[in-house]
Write a structure and sequence with these properties.
The structure is a homodimer of 164-residue chains. By secondary structure, chain A is of the alpha+beta class. The first copy, chain A, has 2 domains: 72 residues, Dna Ligase, domain 1 (2-Layer Sandwich); 90 residues, Orthogonal Bundle (Arc Repressor Mutant, subunit A). Helix content of chain A is 40%, strand content 20%. Chain A is built from 6 helices and 6 strands; from the N terminus they run ααβααββββαβα. In chain A, strands 1-3-2 form a 3-stranded antiparallel β-sheet. In chain A, strands 5-4-6 form a 3-stranded mixed β-sheet. In chain A, strand 4 and strand 5 form a beta hairpin. In chain A, helix 2 crosses helix 3. At the A-B interface, strand 4, helix 5 and strand 6 of A face strand 4, helix 5 and strand 6 of B. The first copy, chain A, binds a DNA duplex (25 and 25 nucleotides) through helix 2 and helix 4.
Chain lengths: 164, 164
DNA sequence: ATAGATGCAAATATTTTGCCGCCAG
DNA sequence: CTGGCGGCAAAATATTTGCATCTAT
């Protein structure tokens, strides 16, 4: 049989290696894209992520579930998901170096707002943002498919600290 | 004497190596930051740029004026300008790889709008964008200092072509 | 005079690619 | 079965750093 040893994590986390439940798995399945053991794991990590992750974080979490996941496969799977528009790529204004961050593409775009001092990142949704994209589409006569907005500054806490 | 050979370009371009005319040069001069021969050249290139440039383009243009400019100095000067908020860093949605682009920070922020097929990049300014940033500052109680918005899609021309 | 800048080379960091054996469908 | 996929190592890119020397002020 296939999958002789699943290299499962010994922690008590929720593990659905064989099922096709996650949104990303469903999306790829629907497109007739081969679902390998490694892909399932990476997709699950992305689906379960409560926030944006960089490649090393994805790898780390994936290996906790299945130690046989290689970083190259993470890169290749990310490319695949990007091509299909299923994840968004961020760089958070290079707050922590030049690495990229990824998150599943939800139903609505949101803005990432980062504090340049403490590094806290918050998300922001606004009808204004939707209006703005519509305005661009209309003015330039183009079909807008991706957008990324990242805002940096100093949160109230950090402003207080630095004035002391 | 200093500067034995200025390594000037032989082309008939406007060259003001010794003067302190550009906006960036003035800005750094005002801050008591040392203006070396190399910095003057790089600042002039940035000031004269009609659009965003990547590091190699900056280097290339700088070396046409003064061949004694090293790429490391370009990186270091970019860092300096970033720290002082005098230039903006873009990556144009990684349209052409992961390199970064730089442009002088004008009086108003603008959005970069790129066609994912032909690569054309246009700029967009909008009161809505200013409102959006104000909304973020108010809602999160933070001081917004930088923002970057990049929008991708397909321009009318490219949409036409692909439907054929 | 001297703090700070530059050049050069080497080190890092990040991502991509070639090749071959393996596996999902 | 078979074409796509994953692992491994090596390459390609992009950027940063240590150190000796030079220079703007």
């Amino acid at each position: 049989m296939a999958v002789p040893s699943q290299h499962r994590a010994s922690t008590g986390e929720r593990i659905n290696t064989a099922e096709t439940t996650g949104k990303l798995q469903q999306a790829l399945g629907k497109r007739r894209i081969r679902l390998t053991r490694q892909r399932r794991v990476i997709l699950q990590v992305m689906d379960d992520a409560e926030q944006h992750l960089d490649v090393d974080q994805i790898l780390e979490r994936a290996q906790k579930i299945d130690s046989g996941v290689h970083v190259v496969t993470v890169y290749r799977t990310i490319d695949l998901l990007k091509k299909h528009g299923l994840i968004d790529e961020l760089d958070l204004l290079h707050l922590r170096g030049d690495r990229h961050y990824y998150e599943t593409h939800g139903p609505r775009d949101h803005i990432h707002v980062a504090c340049l001092r403490c590094g806290k990142v918050r998300e922001f949704e606004s009808g204004l943002y939707e209006q703005l994209k519509q305005q661009i589409a209309r003015d330039f006569d183009m079909k807008v498919t991706v957008s990324r907005t990242e805002v940096g500054g100093y949160c109230a806490e950090c402003l207080e600290k630095s004035s002391s």
